[in-house]
Amino acid sequence: MTNPYAASGVDTEAGDRAVELMKAAVAKTHTAGVVGGFGGFAGLFDLSAAGRFRRPLLATSTDGVGTKIALAQAIDKHDTIGQDLVGMVVDDIVVVGAKPLFMTDYIACGRVVPERIADIVRGIAEACSATGTSLVGGETAEHPGVMAEHEYDVAGAAVGIVEHDEQLGPDRVEIGDVVIAMASSGLHSNGFSLVRHVLSERDIALDAHVEELGGVAAEVLLEPTRLYTQPLVEMLEAGLGIHALSHVTGGGIAANLARVLPKGASVEIERSWRIPEVFGALAHIGGFGIDQTEGTWNLGIGMFAVVDAADAEAVITASHAAGINAWAAGRVEFGASLSEDYIQGAKGVNGGAVRLHGNWS
Protein backbone atom coordinates (compact mmCIF):
# COMPACT_ATOMS: atom_id res chain seq x y z
CA MET A 1 0.00 0.00 0.00
CA THR A 2 1.30 3.43 -0.92
CA ASN A 3 2.19 5.59 2.05
CA PRO A 4 0.18 8.82 1.59
CA TYR A 5 2.82 10.78 3.52
CA ALA A 6 5.49 9.60 1.06
CA ALA A 7 3.17 10.55 -1.81
CA SER A 8 3.08 14.09 -0.41
CA GLY A 9 6.88 14.29 -0.73
CA VAL A 10 8.05 13.37 2.77
CA ASP A 11 10.36 10.35 2.94
CA THR A 12 10.62 9.19 6.55
CA GLU A 13 12.80 6.25 5.55
CA ALA A 14 15.36 8.66 4.05
CA GLY A 15 15.30 10.54 7.33
CA ASP A 16 16.05 7.36 9.23
CA ARG A 17 18.96 6.58 6.87
CA ALA A 18 20.37 10.05 7.44
CA VAL A 19 20.27 9.46 11.20
CA GLU A 20 22.15 6.18 10.84
CA LEU A 21 24.84 7.89 8.76
CA MET A 22 25.41 10.64 11.33
CA LYS A 23 25.13 8.69 14.60
CA ALA A 24 28.81 7.88 15.01
CA ALA A 25 29.95 11.48 14.44
CA VAL A 26 27.39 12.84 16.91
CA ALA A 27 28.29 10.25 19.56
CA LYS A 28 31.93 11.38 19.48
CA THR A 29 30.88 14.82 20.79
CA HIS A 30 29.24 13.42 23.92
CA THR A 31 30.93 14.26 27.18
CA ALA A 32 30.24 12.85 30.63
CA GLY A 33 27.39 15.34 31.04
CA VAL A 34 25.24 13.91 28.26
CA VAL A 35 22.37 11.78 29.59
CA GLY A 36 20.35 9.32 27.54
CA GLY A 37 22.49 9.06 24.45
CA PHE A 38 21.17 9.53 20.92
CA GLY A 39 17.67 9.70 19.46
CA GLY A 40 15.44 10.97 22.28
CA PHE A 41 12.74 13.58 21.92
CA ALA A 42 14.89 15.98 23.92
CA GLY A 43 18.57 16.13 24.80
CA LEU A 44 19.55 15.88 28.45
CA PHE A 45 22.67 17.27 30.10
CA ASP A 46 23.72 16.76 33.71
CA LEU A 47 24.83 20.20 34.94
CA SER A 48 26.77 18.65 37.81
CA ALA A 49 29.26 17.47 35.16
CA ALA A 50 30.13 21.14 34.51
CA GLY A 51 31.74 21.37 37.96
CA ARG A 52 30.98 23.24 41.16
CA PHE A 53 29.93 26.88 40.87
CA ARG A 54 29.18 29.49 43.53
CA ARG A 55 26.68 31.31 41.32
CA PRO A 56 26.49 29.72 37.86
CA LEU A 57 25.06 31.62 34.92
CA LEU A 58 23.83 29.85 31.81
CA ALA A 59 24.65 31.54 28.52
CA THR A 60 22.75 30.79 25.32
CA SER A 61 23.07 31.75 21.68
CA THR A 62 21.29 30.88 18.45
CA ASP A 63 22.18 31.59 14.83
CA GLY A 64 22.30 30.24 11.30
CA VAL A 65 24.74 30.31 8.41
CA GLY A 66 22.84 32.72 6.19
CA THR A 67 23.10 32.83 2.43
CA LYS A 68 26.50 31.13 2.44
CA ILE A 69 24.51 27.91 2.04
CA ALA A 70 23.78 28.95 -1.57
CA LEU A 71 27.46 28.35 -2.37
CA ALA A 72 27.42 24.89 -0.83
CA GLN A 73 24.32 24.03 -2.82
CA ALA A 74 25.82 25.42 -6.06
CA ILE A 75 28.71 22.93 -6.05
CA ASP A 76 27.06 20.17 -3.97
CA LYS A 77 29.66 20.45 -1.18
CA HIS A 78 28.16 20.27 2.30
CA ASP A 79 30.91 19.05 4.64
CA THR A 80 32.09 22.48 5.86
CA ILE A 81 28.85 24.39 6.37
CA GLY A 82 28.41 22.68 9.75
CA GLN A 83 31.60 24.29 11.06
CA ASP A 84 30.22 27.66 9.98
CA LEU A 85 27.12 27.02 12.07
CA VAL A 86 29.09 26.05 15.17
CA GLY A 87 31.39 29.05 14.77
CA MET A 88 28.47 31.45 14.54
CA VAL A 89 26.78 29.98 17.62
CA VAL A 90 29.45 28.74 20.00
CA ASP A 91 31.93 31.59 19.50
CA ASP A 92 29.16 33.93 20.71
CA ILE A 93 28.95 31.87 23.91
CA VAL A 94 32.62 32.32 24.80
CA VAL A 95 32.33 36.11 24.34
CA VAL A 96 30.71 36.39 27.78
CA GLY A 97 33.41 34.15 29.27
CA ALA A 98 31.26 31.01 29.24
CA LYS A 99 32.44 27.50 28.49
CA PRO A 100 30.05 25.81 26.01
CA LEU A 101 28.25 22.73 27.25
CA PHE A 102 25.89 21.49 24.54
CA MET A 103 24.29 22.37 21.22
CA THR A 104 21.28 21.38 19.11
CA ASP A 105 20.81 21.85 15.37
CA TYR A 106 17.90 22.23 12.95
CA ILE A 107 17.96 21.48 9.22
CA ALA A 108 15.02 22.33 6.96
CA CYS A 109 15.16 20.94 3.43
CA GLY A 110 13.06 20.39 0.35
CA ARG A 111 13.99 16.71 0.22
CA VAL A 112 16.02 14.57 2.59
CA VAL A 113 19.10 13.27 0.82
CA PRO A 114 20.67 11.11 3.54
CA GLU A 115 24.28 11.60 2.41
CA ARG A 116 23.83 15.38 2.21
CA ILE A 117 22.25 15.63 5.64
CA ALA A 118 24.94 13.37 7.10
CA ASP A 119 27.68 15.57 5.60
CA ILE A 120 26.15 18.66 7.20
CA VAL A 121 25.77 17.03 10.61
CA ARG A 122 29.25 15.49 10.50
CA GLY A 123 30.62 19.00 9.98
CA ILE A 124 28.61 20.23 12.96
CA ALA A 125 29.79 17.31 15.09
CA GLU A 126 33.46 17.74 14.20
CA ALA A 127 33.32 21.44 15.06
CA CYS A 128 31.47 20.67 18.30
CA SER A 129 34.27 18.26 19.23
CA ALA A 130 36.86 20.94 18.47
CA THR A 131 35.11 23.40 20.78
CA GLY A 132 34.34 20.96 23.62
CA THR A 133 30.59 21.13 22.93
CA SER A 134 28.27 18.11 23.09
CA LEU A 135 25.80 17.80 20.22
CA VAL A 136 22.81 16.50 22.18
CA GLY A 137 20.02 16.67 19.63
CA GLY A 138 18.68 18.02 16.39
CA GLU A 139 15.88 17.98 13.89
CA THR A 140 15.72 17.45 10.15
CA ALA A 141 12.47 18.71 8.61
CA GLU A 142 11.39 17.95 5.06
CA HIS A 143 9.38 20.78 3.44
CA PRO A 144 8.26 19.62 -0.01
CA GLY A 145 6.41 22.27 -1.98
CA VAL A 146 7.88 25.00 0.22
CA MET A 147 11.56 24.50 -0.56
CA ALA A 148 13.06 23.13 -3.78
CA GLU A 149 14.48 19.61 -3.56
CA HIS A 150 18.10 20.82 -3.47
CA GLU A 151 17.46 23.62 -0.97
CA TYR A 152 18.10 23.56 2.76
CA ASP A 153 18.73 25.89 5.65
CA VAL A 154 20.53 25.26 8.93
CA ALA A 155 20.30 26.80 12.38
CA GLY A 156 21.47 25.92 15.84
CA ALA A 157 21.46 26.89 19.49
CA ALA A 158 23.97 26.30 22.26
CA VAL A 159 24.21 26.65 26.03
CA GLY A 160 27.30 27.44 28.09
CA ILE A 161 28.10 28.17 31.71
CA VAL A 162 30.14 30.83 33.52
CA GLU A 163 30.67 31.84 37.13
CA HIS A 164 28.80 35.07 37.86
CA ASP A 165 31.87 37.01 38.95
CA GLU A 166 33.94 35.73 36.00
CA GLN A 167 31.68 36.85 33.17
CA LEU A 168 33.28 39.15 30.63
CA GLY A 169 31.85 42.44 29.45
CA PRO A 170 32.08 46.23 29.29
CA ASP A 171 32.04 46.69 33.07
CA ARG A 172 35.45 44.99 33.32
CA VAL A 173 37.14 47.12 30.65
CA GLU A 174 39.67 49.62 31.99
CA ILE A 175 41.63 52.55 30.66
CA GLY A 176 44.85 51.36 29.03
CA ASP A 177 43.51 47.89 28.14
CA VAL A 178 45.03 46.57 24.93
CA VAL A 179 42.75 45.45 22.09
CA ILE A 180 44.09 42.24 20.55
CA ALA A 181 42.91 41.31 17.05
CA MET A 182 42.66 37.61 16.23
CA ALA A 183 42.81 36.77 12.53
CA SER A 184 39.84 35.38 10.61
CA SER A 185 40.06 32.51 8.15
CA GLY A 186 38.28 34.57 5.50
CA LEU A 187 34.71 35.80 5.16
CA HIS A 188 33.39 33.47 7.87
CA SER A 189 29.58 33.46 7.52
CA ASN A 190 28.67 37.11 7.13
CA GLY A 191 28.19 39.41 4.20
CA PHE A 192 27.42 36.70 1.66
CA SER A 193 24.44 38.58 0.29
CA LEU A 194 26.95 41.21 -0.82
CA VAL A 195 29.31 38.51 -2.13
CA ARG A 196 26.56 36.94 -4.21
CA HIS A 197 25.42 40.37 -5.44
CA VAL A 198 28.96 41.20 -6.57
CA LEU A 199 29.26 37.96 -8.54
CA SER A 200 25.75 38.21 -9.96
CA GLU A 201 26.30 41.79 -11.17
CA ARG A 202 29.31 40.55 -13.15
CA ASP A 203 27.43 37.45 -14.41
CA ILE A 204 29.88 35.19 -12.57
CA ALA A 205 28.40 31.79 -11.71
CA LEU A 206 29.17 30.33 -8.29
CA ASP A 207 30.63 27.23 -9.93
CA ALA A 208 32.80 29.24 -12.34
CA HIS A 209 36.60 29.51 -12.15
CA VAL A 210 37.44 33.11 -11.22
CA GLU A 211 41.03 34.21 -11.82
CA GLU A 212 40.93 36.99 -9.21
CA LEU A 213 39.79 34.48 -6.58
CA GLY A 214 42.31 31.84 -7.64
CA GLY A 215 39.82 29.02 -8.17
CA VAL A 216 36.18 28.05 -8.44
CA ALA A 217 34.25 30.86 -6.76
CA ALA A 218 32.17 28.75 -4.39
CA GLU A 219 35.09 26.50 -3.41
CA VAL A 220 37.26 29.49 -2.46
CA LEU A 221 34.46 31.32 -0.65
CA LEU A 222 33.34 28.24 1.32
CA GLU A 223 36.47 28.46 3.51
CA PRO A 224 34.92 27.57 6.89
CA THR A 225 34.57 29.95 9.81
CA ARG A 226 37.50 29.85 12.22
CA LEU A 227 36.73 28.49 15.69
CA TYR A 228 38.06 30.56 18.60
CA THR A 229 36.31 28.92 21.52
CA GLN A 230 38.84 26.36 22.71
CA PRO A 231 41.92 28.65 22.65
CA LEU A 232 39.96 31.38 24.45
CA VAL A 233 38.58 28.99 27.08
CA GLU A 234 42.13 27.83 27.76
CA MET A 235 43.36 31.42 28.10
CA LEU A 236 40.55 32.19 30.56
CA GLU A 237 41.26 29.05 32.57
CA ALA A 238 44.94 30.05 32.68
CA GLY A 239 43.91 33.30 34.37
CA LEU A 240 44.99 35.67 31.61
CA GLY A 241 43.51 39.13 32.06
CA ILE A 242 40.88 39.10 29.32
CA HIS A 243 38.22 41.69 30.18
CA ALA A 244 35.97 41.52 27.11
CA LEU A 245 35.66 39.67 23.81
CA SER A 246 33.97 40.67 20.58
CA HIS A 247 33.01 38.21 17.86
CA VAL A 248 33.28 40.10 14.56
CA THR A 249 30.16 39.05 12.68
CA GLY A 250 27.38 41.06 11.00
CA GLY A 251 28.05 44.79 11.22
CA GLY A 252 31.76 44.63 10.62
CA ILE A 253 34.77 45.62 12.67
CA ALA A 254 34.11 48.88 14.51
CA ALA A 255 30.46 48.26 15.43
CA ASN A 256 31.13 44.84 16.96
CA LEU A 257 34.02 46.09 19.07
CA ALA A 258 32.00 49.10 20.23
CA ARG A 259 29.32 46.75 21.60
CA VAL A 260 31.68 45.40 24.30
CA LEU A 261 33.14 48.73 25.40
CA PRO A 262 31.61 50.81 28.20
CA LYS A 263 30.02 54.15 27.41
CA GLY A 264 32.71 56.81 27.44
CA ALA A 265 35.43 54.46 26.24
CA SER A 266 36.97 54.73 22.79
CA VAL A 267 39.45 52.81 20.65
CA GLU A 268 41.29 53.78 17.49
CA ILE A 269 42.23 50.92 15.17
CA GLU A 270 44.98 51.62 12.65
CA ARG A 271 44.29 50.26 9.15
CA SER A 272 47.67 48.58 9.12
CA TRP A 273 47.09 44.82 9.00
CA ARG A 274 47.32 42.76 5.84
CA ILE A 275 43.83 42.06 4.54
CA PRO A 276 43.33 38.53 3.17
CA GLU A 277 43.35 38.53 -0.61
CA VAL A 278 39.77 37.31 -0.93
CA PHE A 279 38.43 40.66 0.31
CA GLY A 280 40.50 42.71 -2.11
CA ALA A 281 39.53 40.41 -4.98
CA LEU A 282 35.82 40.75 -4.24
CA ALA A 283 36.09 44.53 -3.90
CA HIS A 284 37.95 44.72 -7.21
CA ILE A 285 35.34 42.56 -8.95
CA GLY A 286 32.59 44.71 -7.44
CA GLY A 287 34.27 47.97 -8.38
CA PHE A 288 34.32 49.52 -4.90
CA GLY A 289 36.90 50.28 -2.24
CA ILE A 290 37.76 48.09 0.73
CA ASP A 291 36.78 50.94 3.06
CA GLN A 292 33.19 50.63 1.79
CA THR A 293 32.98 47.10 3.21
CA GLU A 294 34.21 47.83 6.74
CA GLY A 295 30.66 47.66 8.07
CA THR A 296 29.91 44.36 6.31
CA TRP A 297 32.95 42.06 6.16
CA ASN A 298 35.44 41.19 8.91
CA LEU A 299 38.42 42.08 6.63
CA GLY A 300 40.66 39.56 8.36
CA ILE A 301 39.69 40.02 12.02
CA GLY A 302 37.35 37.39 13.46
CA MET A 303 37.62 38.13 17.18
CA PHE A 304 38.80 40.95 19.43
CA ALA A 305 40.10 40.45 22.97
CA VAL A 306 40.22 43.47 25.28
CA VAL A 307 43.04 42.60 27.66
CA ASP A 308 44.88 43.94 30.67
CA ALA A 309 48.05 45.51 29.26
CA ALA A 310 50.20 43.28 31.48
CA ASP A 311 48.79 40.14 29.78
CA ALA A 312 48.57 41.39 26.20
CA GLU A 313 51.75 39.68 25.03
CA ALA A 314 50.75 36.42 26.73
CA VAL A 315 47.38 36.45 24.93
CA ILE A 316 49.10 37.05 21.59
CA THR A 317 51.55 34.22 22.29
CA ALA A 318 48.75 31.83 23.28
CA SER A 319 46.80 32.71 20.15
CA HIS A 320 49.82 32.03 17.96
CA ALA A 321 50.36 28.71 19.72
CA ALA A 322 46.79 27.79 18.77
CA GLY A 323 47.54 28.57 15.14
CA ILE A 324 45.73 31.91 15.07
CA ASN A 325 47.63 35.05 14.10
CA ALA A 326 47.07 37.88 16.58
CA TRP A 327 48.36 41.39 17.13
CA ALA A 328 47.85 44.51 19.26
CA ALA A 329 45.38 46.64 17.30
CA GLY A 330 44.57 49.49 19.69
CA ARG A 331 44.26 50.72 23.25
CA VAL A 332 41.24 51.73 25.33
CA GLU A 333 40.91 55.40 26.25
CA PHE A 334 38.31 57.23 28.28
CA GLY A 335 37.14 60.79 27.79
CA ALA A 336 38.73 61.27 24.37
CA SER A 337 37.34 63.89 22.01
CA LEU A 338 35.34 62.00 19.39
CA SER A 339 35.04 62.97 15.75
CA GLU A 340 32.17 62.10 13.42
CA ASP A 341 33.92 59.04 12.01
CA TYR A 342 33.64 57.12 15.28
CA ILE A 343 31.03 54.38 15.42
CA GLN A 344 29.30 54.26 18.78
CA GLY A 345 27.38 51.21 19.92
CA ALA A 346 25.40 48.77 17.78
CA LYS A 347 22.60 46.20 17.98
CA GLY A 348 20.73 48.39 20.45
CA VAL A 349 23.74 48.68 22.78
CA ASN A 350 24.79 52.22 23.67
CA GLY A 351 28.39 51.27 24.27
CA GLY A 352 31.80 52.72 23.52
CA ALA A 353 33.13 54.30 20.35
CA VAL A 354 35.51 52.87 17.74
CA ARG A 355 37.00 54.26 14.58
CA LEU A 356 39.35 52.93 11.96
CA HIS A 357 41.93 55.45 10.85
CA GLY A 358 44.76 55.65 8.37
CA ASN A 359 44.75 54.33 4.82
CA TRP A 360 44.81 50.77 3.56
CA SER A 361 48.13 49.95 1.97
TrEMBL record:
The lineage of its organism: Bacteria, Bacillati, Actinomycetota, Actinomycetes, Micrococcales. Residues 58-162 form the PurM-like N-terminal domain. Keywords: ATP-binding, Cytoplasm, Ligase, Nucleotide-binding, Purine biosynthesis. Residues 175-334 form the PurM-like C-terminal domain. It is found in: Cytoplasm. Its main location: cytoplasm. The gene is purM. This is Phosphoribosylformylglycinamidine cyclo-ligase. NCBIfam families: purM.
